[in-house]
Structures are given as structure tokens and as C-alpha cells.
Amino acid sequence: MSGARPWAPWMLLAVPVAVFVALFLLPLLNLFALSFVKFDRATGSLGGLTIENYRKFLGDGFYLGILARTLRLAALTTLTTLALGYPVALHLTRCRGRQRAYLTMLVLAPLLVSVVVRSFGWLVILGPNGLVNWVIVRLGLVTDPLRLLYTETAIVVGLAHVFLSFMVLSIATALDRIDSIMVRAAQSLGAPPRQVFFRVILPLSLPGVVAGSLIVFTLGTSAFITPALLGGPRVKVMSYLAYQQTLLLSDWPYGGAIAFILLAVTAASVITYLRALESGRFKVIFR
Amino acid sequence: MTRRRPTLLGLFSAAVYGFVLSPIVIVLLASLTAADYTSFPPQGLSVRWYLAIPDNPEFLESFKVSLIVAAASAALATALGTPAALALVRYRFPGRAALNTFFLSPLMLPTVILGIALLQFYTRVGITRTPLSLVFGHLVITLPYVVRLVSASLAGLDPSLGLAAMNLGATPWQTFRRVTLPLIRPGIVAGATFAAITSFDDVSVALFLASPRSVTLPVRIFTYIEQTLDPLVTAVCSVLIVLAALGVVVIERSIGLGRLFGAPEAGPH
Fold first, then answer.
1. Closest partner residue to A259 among B21, B37, B112, by Cβ?
2. B257 pLDDT band (50/70/90 cuts)?
């Protein structure tokens, strides 16, 4: 079909591409260019070209600390979702029919309610008058309510809660793909359940673990609303910093530079992670 | 594989499901408080905070804005995303893979970049402070879902069905209208639904593009709970949870959640 009418796909694509270039690509390029423009805080005026915005970030321990915190929280969130999600995925793939459909929906439940509602729920649970403090004060573990909100822990809990669905679904997909013949072969050769799991199921499910970790990590570094509400200005992450610099302080060039640094660092960590895997001992699985 | 006794794995999963549901359940319970402050467990039992919602018309106003923006951006995204998916799945041409990535790329970007970039650019071309900028912004974040879900349903389609129709003398348009479109309708409906939900739930982009006259509901809630945690917002959030639950039931009845989220069908075992 394509040989006869090479223009045919472009008839379908012309309008969508044009719209997407105008509404998405141009704004992005515009912001990239703006991140190299000098900004005068005193007068609020824009000046000539400079790399000062990037140098200011990369040369300041305060800002680098926020970058480090963002990466650390994303990594902790990934580990948390992995630890909670792998057993859940394993359990899910052993369920069938309606039970499985309902459990899948439970896994997806956090995605179905708005991020503000979810975060608000955690505010109520972790707050000074919240559930956790009520329980530990009642149990006599502490006399005064603990400060749980506006901490890094609160951010990890909030992020792990919603990103768990992505981890569970990617691991479950990988587990589903495992040919049951492999498992039966191991069993008939006399492998005990523990060995079947660690020598057959776990290695074969690693692509799902990798895919899930990548999704959770990238979503974690770029998360904005959950850290903003559960960490607040006190525990800033990169997204919040960019928001603060632009919308609250009107320093668009610097906010833009922060956003692009976040993008570059996230991309770089994903590439490093994939490279490490390709050279690792399970590379045969990832081909 | 039927199990009667709960296994360790089952118990662990049950605990995780409890964790997953906890913030949703807690908001619903906390909204029934009679006190002036949000706490858990709630103090007393009343629906006074639900009755207080109409006294704060800004929430209702924002709900309307959210609905309009979601409907408009989902309609636009479907109208643009369906032909794009058709071209990307049905034809082989230079630049196809790059274009595919281009259409999906908003999903890979930190939303805060999009928010900043769109606000900065839309201000420059003078379309901020109108609901239009919200619709455009949401078009950018919803189009990827339509392209993906319609592509997925097209990829599962046997191309010989279209060829058969053409062979029998149907024009390309007739083939699309009478053969392809009915077959990919579930993908289109799923794409439009996902687009509408994404738009309705978005905060990060809308936070930048909202103007004082058009604030979407999630942005209204965000700015509200940044300042205070009074129980009014627990009631508003509870209404949203109930709406989401109703939405799930409607989607399940009409197209099936499994199809929408691409979960595997329960296998024969």
C-alpha cells in the first residue's frame, strides 16, 4: 500500500503533527532557549545569552542537595514498590478469573482517584491528628504525636503508594509470560519449591522487575504534586524547586534550567542502569 | 490452583492491598466528622461538611471547568490521535519510528517541564488566561494515550479484512467507515476515556495554565490544602472518590477495565 501512495500517511498525519509541533515542541524549544538567557532579579528583565543558570545550579551545594534528594527519594520509592510489589504480583498471577480481575482493580485503585485526593489521604493519615499518631499514642509508644508529615518518609510513602500499581503490573506481565513448562520441568527434575522460585521463576521475571523499576524511578524523579503536598517547601524536590522559581519567584530562565537538568539527570540514570544490565550476568534474558 | 487456606503470600498481599486502599478509605471516613478540624478517627458523626459544599460555590465552579476542559481536550485528542495512529500502524514510511516517539514523548517528560514550557510559550503568543490554554495543555498530555490505545487496537486487527473490503470495491473511506472503524471502536473509546480521566485528574500542568477565572477542581483542591486541612476538603475529596468509583463501574460495564488497562485476560487453566 505504501509503495503506491507514499503521501497517504502524511494526509493523516499533517494536522496532528502540525498541532503537536505548535502546542508541544515549540514551547519546549522555547523554554530550552530561555534557560540560556540572563535574568535580572532586581528589575525582572531578560538579558543576553549565558550559561549562568546552569552554572549557578551545578556550583551550589544547596541546589545539588535537592537534586541528590530527588534521586534518593526516587530510588527508595523504587525499592519500596519492588519489595511490596513482587509478592503481590506473584500472588496475582496465581489467581484466576473474577478474583484476579478484582485484585487487579484494587492494584489500580490509587490511579483512579486524583493525585490531590490521594495525597490528602496521606495528610490525614500522617498528620498530627492522624491515624498513625492516634495508634502509637494509644499504644503508649510515644507521649506526643510524632512529626511524620513534611518529611522524606512521607514523600516515599505517598509515591510508593501510587507507583506500586506500575511495578505490580509489569512484574505480573513478566510472570504471565513464563512458560509453565519450565516450572513443571524443574519440578519433575526434583527441584523443591524454593529452588524452582529462585532458579527459574525469579530470573525469568527480571525483565518485568527492570521495566517496573525504570517506570517507577523516572516517575519518582519527576513527581511534583505528591512531594509538594507531603514534603512541602521544607523538603523540596527538583520539580517543586522549578515550580517555586518560575510560578512563585518569576525567574523563568532559572526554573527552565532546573527542569532541563532534571530531565538530563533522569535520562542519564536510566541509560546507565540499562547499560549496567546489558553487561551483567542476566544479559541473555534482556535480549 | 484453588487455595482454601490463606498462604503467607496471600496474607502479605492482603496487607499491601490494605495499604493501597487506606488513604481512600480514611478520607471517606474523616469526611463524616462533626468537628471543625480534620482528624482520624473522626470526632462525632455528621454530614455537615457535605452540606457546606454548596456554600462554597468555587468548588462547583471548578468542577464545571474541569468537566468542560476534560470533554474538550478528550474530543480534540481523539480527533487528532486516531488518524495519527492509523498512519503510524498502517503505513511504513521514513520517520515513522521517530514520529511515534514524538507523539508519546509528553508521557516521558517530567510534567513540571511541560507546565513551565507551556505557560511560558502560551503567554508569549497571548493565549493564557483563557480556558483555551488549559484545553491545549491537556491535549498535549492526553494525545499520547489516544495514539497508544488506538494503535494497540489497530495492531490486533487483521489487515486482510480491509483488503477484502477494497477488493470488493469499497473506497478507502468506505473501508474505514464500515470495516476498520467498527473494529477499532473499543480502542477509540478507551483512548477517549483515558484522555478525559487524565485531563480531569491533572494538577501539574493545570496548576501553571489555570487563570483566576478558570481553575480546575484538582488545582482548587491543591491550593486549598496547601493552606488548610479543614474537613470541607475531605467532603469534596470524598465526592470525587465516589465519582471515580461510579466511573469505574460505567467503564467496566461498557468497555471492560481489562481492555482499558491492557491487563491480560484471565487465561484458561
1. B112
2. low
Q: What is the DSSP letter of B262?
A: T
Q: Report the predicted TM-score, pTM, of the whole model to 2 decimal places.
A: 0.87
> What are the grid coordinates assigned to B206, written together?
493545570
Chain B: residue nearest A162 by CA? B20
Contact B225, B115 (CB under 8 A): no
Phi, psi of A49 (to 5 degrees): -75, 145
SS3 for B120?
helix
For residues B93 and A6, what is the distance between their CA atoms, to the nearest angstrom? 8
DSSP track, A53-100: HHHHHHT-HHHHHHHHHHHHHHHHHHHHHHHHHHHHHHHHHH--HHHH
Cβ contact B21–A1 (<8 Å): no
8 Å CB contact of A114 and B200: yes
Average pLDDT of span B83-100: 91
**Of residues A232 and A240, more confidently modeled:** A240
| DSSP codes joined into one string, A52-63 | HHHHHHHT-HHH
Contacts of A169 in chain B (CB under 8 A): 261, 263
Contact (CB<8Å) B39/A130: yes
Q: Which residue has the higher pLDDT, A264 or B261?
A: A264
Contact B23 A91 (CB under 8 A): no
- Asked if B132 and B214 touch (Cβ cutoff 8 Å), the reply is no
Residues in chain B: 269
Say if the Cβ atoms of B258 and A116 lie within 8 Å.
no
Q: Do A124 and B103 touch (CB under 8 A)?
A: no
Half-sphere exposure of A23 (CA within 13 A, CB side): 26
Cell output for B158: 487483521
Distance CA A196, CA A187 (A): 7
Task: For A7-59, write each residue's pLDDT tens digit.
Answer: 888 889 999 999 999 999 999 999 999 999 988 877 777 778 889 999 999 99
| Cβ atoms B220, B233 nearer than 8 A | no
Looking at the DSSP assignment, which residues form a beta bridge with residue A40? A45
CB A241 within 8 A of CB A251: no
Chain B residues within 8 A of A123 when measuring between CB atoms: 225, 229
Determine the Cα angle at A282 with ends A276 and A286, to 5°. Answer: 80
Looking at residue A275, what is its pLDDT? 84
DSSP bridge partners of A37: A49
User: Grid coordinates 483512579 are at which residue?
Assistant: A112
Q: Which residues of B touch A238 (CB under 8 A)?
A: 110
Interface test with B, best of A2, A24, A94, A178 (most B CBs within 10 A): A24
User: What is the ipTM for the molecules in this complex?
Assistant: 0.86
